[in-house]
Amino acid sequence: MGVATLLIPACLLVVVASQAIVYNSFFCIDFGLDLKLNESYETQLQEQLGYSLRGTASKLETRWRIVTFYKNVLAKIKPKLAAAKFNDIKKLLWEGDKTALHNAMYSFDDWKTKAIDAITNAAKKIEIRKIINNLETANKSWDDDKRAWMPGMGFRKCSLK
């Protein structure tokens, strides 16, 4: 009797879990997910999808502006540097961006310091620093975009099901 008492509920639990049957208990209601009301559930689901889509679109727009800014910086400094040095600095930018999970708030300032340190000619250092600073100043949304793009923020792995 003892083994059967444990085995039968365990088998039923496996069947319920494998068929994705939602058990409406007081636990669900306590957390605001009253799944008995299908219409309420659908409304909540549609609202969450709407929020996610707007958030995702905003993140993609921000990332596009950051990448465009990077490309503009590289285009402005390319004529000032030798091809080999430019390729090293370009590689440094994209590797730093990838390492920092595309978080410009951290990677760009590090890249700027490393890129200027990699240039040996003092006059070129001043010129490149001035170009980058002018581009940052001219791009009014740059600071906002750097702060807005935080990988992991706003992307939650949760669902209403």
TrEMBL record:
This is SXP/RAL-2 family protein Ani s 5-like cation-binding domain-containing protein. The keyword Signal applies. The keyword Signal applies. It comes from the Eukaryota. Residues 1-18 form the signal peptide. Keywords: Signal.
